Amino acid sequence: MIETFQDFFRSVADTYPKWNFIFFHDPSQWERVISGFYVTVQLSVVCVILSVVIGIIGAWAQGSPSRIIRWVVQGYIQFFRNTPPLIQLLFFYFALGQFTPTVTGPDGWTEQPIISNVGWAIISLSFFAGAFNVEIFRSGLEAVPNATLEAAEALGFTRAQTYTNVTFPLALRVSLPALNNNLINLVKTTTQAIAIAVPELLYEMVSIWNDYASAQNAAMTVLFFTYIALVGILAFGMNRWEARLHVPGFGKTS
Amino acid sequence: MDIMKGEVICIIGPSGSGKSTLIRCINALNDVQQGTITLEGYDVHDPKLDKLELRRKVGMVFQQYNLFPHKTALENVMMAPLKVLKEPKAEVEVRARALIKKVRLEGKENAYPGELSGGQQQRVAIARSLAMNPNVMLFDEVTAALDPETVKEVLLTIKELATDGMTCILVTHEMGFAREVADHIYFTDKGVIVEHGAPDTFFDNASDPRTKKFLGQIL
Ligand SMILES: Nc1ncnc2c1ncn2[C@@H]1O[C@H](COP(=O)(O)OP(=O)(O)OP(=O)(O)O)[C@@H](O)[C@H]1O
Ligand SMILES: [Mg+2]
Questions:
Q1: Which of A86, A84, A114, A110 is nearest to A99 (CA)?
Q2: Partner residue opposite B114 with nearest CB, options A145, A155, A247
Q3: B191 CB within 6 A, ligand 1
Q4: β-strands B42-43, B192-197: how paired?
Q5: Residue A111 class from Cβ within 10 Å (0-12 exposed, 13-18 middle, 19+ buried)?
Q6: How many domains does chain A have?
Q7: How many Å is the Cα radius of gyration of chain A?
Q8: For residue B60, what is the domain's CATH number?
Q9: Pairing of strands B38-39, B42-43
């Protein structure tokens, strides 16, 4: 079975020299693709979760009575929203990376920074997407009518109870479509981690076609399809979630 | 003004005369700037008062119903006893179902507010307040957003409550209703109580010219 599969792509490469799907007939190249794919998935999942957490905390902090806290959050949003994510990534890794302490590596004598390039990619991308998530959740919070919160207050809810039982569930429903878009963007932006040599899918694919120029078209094709599939899975999940939270007569007029 | 347990009070007056402000002070949604309010031993005007404890004892129904849109009718009624009073779920559910029945919404337990008419939503809101077993119920123009047909069903519910002996303070523009159910009527204008009295005396023999003018416009 695998044999015929490999033979097929070998014959494709022989017939069309510019379409060498080398990773489909050379197991060692296949392993590179798979390891890149895993890194991409891990990077995406971790960044999605962290950016959502940052968004929720940030939106909550924006409602803080302290003006200083609100300024800090606002400054954070402005910085991350108005600068290119690629530069943020380079800045975090090359500029901030210099100042982090180092630890002795597993071999016992090399010094390694405490935060690896993967670590910096996670931090930088999470804060980048998190800045947009703060805005998204904040507009969700603003959409919750004051009168509804007043009703909770009149029933004796504490502020925290009102937030968790009324404000947040309603804001989340309003925020989901915009959140969906931003998270899709985040997954696509993880490819920029290539700039600091994070061995994610794009990095591995580029390495492959640097080694085998004949694989370039094939690698790009596979990249496109892989991202379509990844984004598709995320969008599907988000839509399912939206549908589950849907309340008749609330939000979308139906 | 003094309100006895079980009494039904109606507050009427022109728009902006401070009716909402007055009743919102009673459950501390607005702060008392001047004067005192005492409710069963609670000094509502005291800024150090535990507002949450007070609000458990005072039910409030709003003009715009203000139900929780993401919860069903039954969940709306159950939420406060569960979260605020931390009562066991089974008990709360029995009580909530009985209250829904009482406001004549049997069968609508699992409907969301968006699927209910204004009058139905308002009755859920009344049941939601009653679920806390309040000592006093406040109603702020609860029929003002409803069409005349549904006004009746809500007024009937309030009337039943009054008959059951619930202390009720109502802001209303329904003069006929006020006359029928109220024990006492207060008329406010420009932030002060201008006149008050028993319904018959108030409506038939108003003495203050401002009251006369208002009644003349409305009746
Ligand atoms: N006793 C008072 N002293 C000073 N200002 C007051 C007093 N009562 C009310 N106000 C002010 O008057 C304004 C209108 O009050 P409120 O909303 O209570 O009127 P209302 O009678 O409920 O009107 P509506 O019929 O339109 O609902 C508010 O801004 C409030 O702060
Ligand atoms: Mg009012």
A1: A114
A2: A247
A3: yes
A4: unpaired
A5: exposed
A6: 1
A7: 23
A8: 3.40.50.300
A9: antiparallel
> How many CB pairs below 8 A link A and B?
76
**Residue B18: nearest ligand to its CA?**
1
Assigned domain for A132 exists: yes
Residue A55 domain-assigned?
yes
The token pair at B169 is 């303070």
From first to last of the 219 residues of chain B, give the pLDDT tens digit: 788 888 899 999 998 999 999 999 998 998 888 888 888 878 888 888 888 889 999 999 999 999 999 999 999 999 999 999 999 999 999 999 999 999 999 999 999 999 999 999 999 999 999 999 999 999 999 888 888 888 888 898 898 998 888 999 999 988 888 988 899 999 998 888 888 888 888 888 888 888 888 888 876
Q: In chain A, which residues have their Cβ closer than 8 Å to the Cβ of B60? A: 151, 154
Q: Are B159 and B10 in contact (CB under 8 A)?
A: no
B182: tokens are 């109220």
Inside any domain, residue A232: yes
Q: How many CB atoms lie within 10 A of CB A150?
A: 17
Q: What's the CATH number where A72 sits? A: 1.10.3720.10
What is the pTM assigned to this prediction?
0.87
Contact between residue B12 and residue B187 where contact means Cβ atoms under 8 Å apart: yes
Residue B80 included in any domain: yes
Element (H, E) at A10: helix A2-15
Contact B84, B56 (CB under 8 A): yes
Q: Is the dihedral of CA B79, B80, B83, B88 positive or negative?
A: negative
Chain A hits for B66, CB-CB cut-off 8 Å, are: 145, 147-148, 150-151
Beta strand pairing call for B184-189 and B8-12 = parallel
- In a domain? residue A167: yes
Give the tokens for residue B86.
């931390």
Distances (CA, A) of B205 to B9, B186, B189, B191: 18, 14, 18, 22
Whole-number Å distance between alpha carbons of A56 and A134: 6
